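Figure 6 in text form: structure in, sequence out.
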């Protein structure tokens, strides 16, 4: 693990991508078939492969507790180091270095330890995940950390928290694998996409079996994402002359896998959410094909889509009660078909063939041919509302119609586009146009006033500055969440506090919130250089990861969009449509 950390350090020290890939290739080439997948997954900045549903469940509180016990320094040493570095891995290394210095100056011997190998670290992460209870997890972590020198500890923590920050994106890592084993980059990317596991991809590249990467049922694929767009002319310019337009539903994105009588649902963050939507599972069980659908789960009652807040009542529960199911029934709105069983040639269970490279028009045709049992006929499915448009005016019209159907906006898709898992490509554009919201991460919380006395209700939130890869604050809000949400989040923030400063405390930056506001202004009040007028929390986004929050560049784009006046963002027709939807 020390050698891995040294390579990571060298990769971090250069900004030249060719040097980075070269350094990696040089190292990866020396690894055996057991070490290689572990090293690759760690370079992807995660303890387990992306498709692997496991998370260690070790919060910052446990990490800082373990470091505190090891270092035997004052309790706020880690908080202070974190304030200096804004990076937990660096802060841990800093504290362990200070502790070693104290030992050295007291003339104490260095503790005798066996440095962990890559396999030891992988095993320790797996054990941390398996054991129950934060104390037992912290104990395993502490044992691991006790074996590391400060530089290695830094990376053990960075991987564990998923914040590697060495200027190594997935694309570069794929390029390094291609260079290591002299394989075409396109083949590496394709295998990475299908397996969702860079460790497995590395092994396939090593063994020259990249073309054998197959779509695996019941292992979630990464989701294709859309790029934001607001201007109808620009959208038609990019995707025209004929673009496909679907309603943008405001629900829960879910991938549905089925084979035999087995059905599983996966959320956008690749977690198994099967248990939360038994009516969709029961409906899917009765079908007769093997394959993977992409779609959105919506609250749907009496022929109408219910607002997201209704669906929220069903979230976060392992399995819903009969009462809540009756109050908030759901449907699965399918919009894509990612794999379908090809004809079995030898009488065995057919393998699902990946359809990702096929054009959307073909995937949609085959999706429609599945004849899913539709909600309006008593089933638990629907197909996304789809029309094709050929001009900006038609697109504007479709947008207003979608709003009348109470949906958020439009997803505009190129009918000839492939499905690119995990990519925010230009094959799909999302057109929201309502006043923009920003996805931010909560970095600090404060005790509230009045009826919010005693709870942590005031949130300070940040976006990511891409140039420095740091979180920079942009605002503070104390409205938008329900009392129940605030109570629940208070307990969470209590357990994930990093440092206290009177009423204010910094917290583990992992809670993503969608923030609504009226205006963005340039201001030195926050270190992003912007601040928001009338910010409010539109909703918690547990489905989003901190890697997905908005950046200073997207804030800049919204800011410059607002300079052109709100009529560009909210058309009169749109307001009319909203008014009618609200009335009717
Ligand atoms: P956002 O959450 O604003 O980044 O928008 C992207 C999300 O829109 C996707 O993750 C989907 O959950 C959702 N979505 C809603 N309707 C569709 C649709 N028809 N096609 C694709 N994605 C959709």
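Output sequence:
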């Amino acid at each position: 693990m020390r050698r891995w950390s040294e390579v990571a350090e060298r990769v971090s020290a250069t900004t030249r991508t060719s040097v980075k890939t070269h350094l990696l290739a040089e190292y990866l080439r020396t690894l055996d078939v057991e070490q290689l997948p572990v090293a690759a997954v760690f370079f992807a900045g995660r303890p387990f492969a992306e498709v692997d549903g496991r998370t260690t469940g070790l919060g910052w509180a446990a990490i800082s507790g373990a470091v505190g016990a090891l270092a035997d320094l004052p309790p706020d040493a880690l908080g202070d180091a974190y304030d200096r570095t804004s990076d937990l891995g660096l802060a841990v290394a800093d504290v362990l270095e200070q502790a070693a210095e104290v030992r050295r100056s007291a003339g104490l011997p260095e503790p005798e330890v066996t440095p962990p190998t890559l396999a030891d670290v992988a095993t320790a992460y797996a054990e941390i995940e398996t054991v129950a209870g934060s104390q037992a997890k912290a104990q395993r972590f502490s044992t691991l950390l006790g074996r590391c020198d400060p530089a290695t500890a830094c990376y053990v923590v960075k991987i564990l928290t998923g914040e590697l920050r060495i200027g190594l994106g997935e694309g570069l890592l794929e390029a390094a694998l291609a260079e290591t084993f002299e394989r075409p980059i396109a083949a590496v990317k394709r295998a990475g996409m299908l397996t969702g596991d860079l460790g497995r991809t590395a092994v396939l590249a090593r063994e020259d079996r990249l073309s054998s990467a197959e779509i695996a049922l019941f292992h979630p694929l990464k989701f294709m994402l859309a790029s934001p767009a607001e201007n109808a002319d620009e959208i038609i310019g990019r995707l025209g002359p004929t673009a496909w337009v679907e309603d943008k539903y405001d629900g829960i994105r879910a991938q549905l896998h089925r084979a035999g009588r087995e059905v599983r649902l996966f959320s956008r963050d690749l977690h198994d959410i099967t248990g939360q939507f038994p009516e969709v599972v029961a409906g899917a069980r009765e079908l007769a094909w093997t394959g993977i659908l992409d779609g959105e789960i919506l609250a749907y009652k009496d022929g109408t889509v219910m607002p997201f807040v209704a669906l929220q009542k069903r979230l976060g529960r392992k399995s819903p009660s009969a009462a809540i199911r009756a109050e908030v029934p759901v449907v699965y709105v399918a919009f894509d078909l990612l794999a379908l069983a090809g004809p079995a040639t030898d009488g065995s269970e057919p393998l699902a063939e990946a359809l990702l490279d096929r054009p959307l028009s073909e995937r949609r045709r085959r999706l429609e041919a599945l004849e899913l049992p539709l909600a309006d006929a008593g089933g638990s499915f629907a197909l996304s509302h789809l029309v094709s448009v050929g001009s900006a005016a038609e697109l504007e019209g479709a947008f207003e119609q979608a709003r009348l159907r109470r949906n958020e906006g439009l997803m505009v898709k190129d009918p000839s586009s492939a499905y690119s898992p995990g990519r925010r490509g230009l094959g799909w554009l999302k057109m929201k146009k309502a006043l923009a919201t920003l996805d931010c991460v909560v970095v600090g919380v404060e005790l509230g006033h009045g009826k919010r006395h005693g709870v942590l209700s005031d949130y300070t939130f940040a976006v990511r500055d891409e140039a420095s890869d740091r979180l920079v604050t942009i605002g503070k809000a104390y409205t938008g969440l329900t009392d129940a949400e605030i109570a629940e989040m208070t307990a969470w923030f209590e357990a994930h506090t990093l440092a206290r400063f009177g009423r204010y405390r910094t917290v583990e930056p992992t809670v993503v919130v969608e923030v609504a506001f009226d205006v963005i202004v340039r201001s030195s009040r926050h270190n992003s250089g912007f601040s928001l007028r009338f910010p409010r929390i539109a909703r918690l986004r547990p489905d989003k990861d901190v890697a997905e929050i908005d950046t200073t560049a997207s804030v800049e784009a919204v800011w410059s969009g607002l300079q052109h006046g709100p009529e560009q963002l909210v058309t009169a027709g749109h307001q009319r449509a909203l008014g009618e939807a609200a009335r009717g």
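Caption detail: The chain has three domains: 46-161, 225-431, 436-562.
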